[in-house]
Design brief:
Helices cover about 30% and strands about 20% of the residues. It is of the alpha/beta class and about 325 residues long.
């Protein structure tokens, strides 16, 4: 079995307990305007272009040689790569193979379960010492549910702790197939109003909240993250609705470990440019101030929720 993997990141400490290897799978049905990983949205491999890293077609030129279209999609200015004609490029990624400085980067590659697990198992000793393991993220893990299940099955056979990070926009039956193989779960609550969620994330939130309620009922250890995007979801009405939902539907399951407030950062803009896309937020907001984050922390703490600012940090007492 194979899947399309955007990236494998080793030695991570923020997405699940301990030191972990994180597998970013491609494909996501959401279109969050603040997404910092646009390379994981499309389910297929894509070409990333970083012109400033090119040393010139005369000094190198390996991309033109490798391109099956005789280099026609590649656009040069003054001898250096400027862009790629996306209408002519087939995203075969042949041009990336010998681009040793990364001017042309493969965003995604087809990998077997065995290839991915070889990366994961290389750090088994670190997992044992730190209580870490493997985290599946995305994109949206459930887009490649069969591949994800195969990875989780292999990890469990090897005694590796498993974590899944999902936005929960999927059929419950799809998610249910993964849960028996999962030791820890991470999800997020972006907006409570369905129309606002559709406006900012591209989809309705009804299915997400329904799945989150069912997930909490399993008692699986769970972290709920709230991306704090000023002017989008940090208003009093949304905050109170979010806290009420968590108290009424999530806390009772007994698995909630922490509510994490993740401040919006202007991350991923370079990735959008590498893919030839505009950054979705026309007027990006400023990151929330420390004072504002302290106010939000105090609010959720007063609501009786275990809250922290950032991923992998201590809960506020």
């Amino acid at each position: 079995m194979t899947g399309i993997v955007a990236n494998i990141q080793r030695y991570t400490i923020h997405d699940g307990p301990g030191v972990r290897t994180e597998i970013f799978l491609k494909g996501c049905p959401l279109r969050c305007k603040w997404c910092s990983n646009p390379e994981t949205i499309s389910p297929r491999p894509e070409l990333g272009v970083y012109p400033t890293k090119c040393i010139g077609e005369n000094a190198c030129g390996s991309c033109k040689v490798a391109c099956p279209e005789d280099g026609k999609p590649l656009r040069f200015r003054d001898g250096k790569l400027e862009t790629v004609d996306r209408t002519a490029c087939t995203d075969c990624l042949a041009c990336t193979a010998d681009c040793f400085l990364g001017a042309l980067k493969p965003w995604g590659m087809e990998m077997t379960v065995e290839q991915v697990m070889a990366e994961v198992l290389a750090d088994r000793t670190l997992y044992q010492k730190s209580g870490g393991g493997m985290t599946l993220s995305g994109g949206e893990v459930t887009v490649q549910a069969d591949f994800a299940r195969a990875l989780l099955e292999t990890a469990k056979r090897e005694g590796i702790h498993t974590c899944v990070e999902s936005a929960l926009f999927c059929r419950w039956e799809t998610l249910e197939r993964l849960l028996p193989l999962c030791d820890f779960f991470i999800t997020d609550v972006k907006l409570m109003d369905a129309a606002a969620h559709r406006q900012w994330c591209g989809v309705d939130n009804g299915l997400i909240l329904e799945n989150l309620t069912k997930l909490a009922g399993t008692g699986l250890p769970l972290v709920v993250r709230i991306p704090v995007v000023p002017g989008v979801n940090d208003g009093e009405e949304n905050l109170r609705a979010t806290a009420a939902f968590l108290k009424e539907n999530i806390v009772s399951g007994g698995g909630l470990q922490q509510v994490q407030l993740l401040p919006y950062r202007r991350l991923g803009e370079e990735k959008y440019a590498s893919l030839g896309r505009e950054y979705p937020l026309e007027e990006p907001p400023q990151s929330p101030t420390d004072e504002r984050l302290r106010e939000l922390t105090a609010f959720f703490k007063a609501e009786g929720l275990p809250v922290a600012v950032g991923a992998g940090t201590k809960t506020e007492e």
